[in-house]
Amino acid sequence: MVFANPWVLLFLVLVPIMILAYVSKANQACLKLPLTEKKENYSSVLDWIGFHLPFIIRILTITLIIITLARPQLGQSFTLSKHKGLDIFFAVDASESMSALDLRLEGREADRLEVLKHILHDFILKREKDRLGLIVFGEKAFTQCPLTLDHGAVLDFVDNLEIGMVGRATAIGTAITLGVKRMKDLSAKSKILILMTDGQNTAGDISPQVAAELAKELDVKIYTIGIGQEGEVPFRIDTPQGPLMVKQEFSIDEDLLINIAEMTGGQYFRAKSSQELENIYNYIDKLEKTEIEVKEYSSYKDIFEKFLWVVLGLFVMELVLANTVLFRIS
């Protein structure tokens, strides 16, 4: 809870002053009365409370009036902030070839996309100060999540990645071009595109080399990660008789991925497990950080009306008690 007029709370200093004045006056009145006629010779704690209850209610009423005038509000506050960080886009291959079961994850067989998602999840958790975005590609490419500091949202999009969601083939050049387009107008000193793929460009109207040249011109560094093993790799296919495991010859175009990374000032990595991706964490951490300005917002709702109802209730209660059961003859 916050207050729209916090300076009004300074008037709360009047409350202890009123209490001290009341106590002093009560003590003086007691000294003037003979012991046998004291109205304030209480037989119990309840008598004492009953005698002073109107004043207690009055103090509560005044306190709540001051709080009400300070305009209490509930809501969330988001303020403008600046910090050092990077702008990083992840380009994730979700083509059919990513279904190869040639990797292991936590001791079990897993397809390439599942391992990639696991690795990417760990990477995102380490990038607390960076703005992150997500591109998914197959035959085409589209922005799954724009650059954001809401890493929870990025992780949700990563979890929802599925093989074949944008086609069966692999358009690496298209993915790079989209990433460059999303980052070309950024003021960050370090604009990074992390391309994760099995390394075979089989679709798209733009070649990876042309896309890499464009990235170089616009100062976008590309870090390429080759996923999976080479040679005969297992795939699970569905048949009328049920799932069937078959093997297909496969090779990763490492020359292409190395060339893309070198052209843009990035680096190529081979990811066969999450442990092998630690080199990327360490390398990116050494990059120059960029000061990022984050615009934040405030959203509050006034709740002083509720305090007004309480004030009204206490005021009526004091009037009723002071003129009925607690009526006193001076």
Summarize the structure in short:
This protein is α/β, with parallel strands linked by helices and 330 residues long.
The overall pLDDT average reads 80
CATH-wise, what's the superfamily of the largest domain? von Willebrand factor, type A domain
Order of helices and strands: EHHEEEEEHEEHHEHEEEHEHEEH
CATH class of the largest domain: Alpha Beta
Structural summary, described in words:
The chain is of the alpha/beta class. It folds into two domains: 2-77 and 298-322; 81-294, Rossmann fold (3-Layer(aba) Sandwich). The chain is 39% helix and 27% strand. It is built from nine helices and 15 strands. The chain has helices at 14-32, 45-69, 112-126, 151-159, 172-183, 208-217, 254-264, 278-285, 304-322; strands spanning 2-3, 72-77, 81-85, 87-93, 103-105, 108-110, 131-137, 141-148, 191-197, 220-227, 231-239, 242-250, 268-271, 290-294, 298-302. The chain has a six-stranded mixed sheet, sandwiched between helices. A three-stranded antiparallel sheet has the order 1-2-15. Strands 3-14 form a two-stranded antiparallel ribbon. Strand 9, helix 6 and strand 10 form a beta-alpha-beta unit. Helix 3 (112-126) runs antiparallel to helix 4.
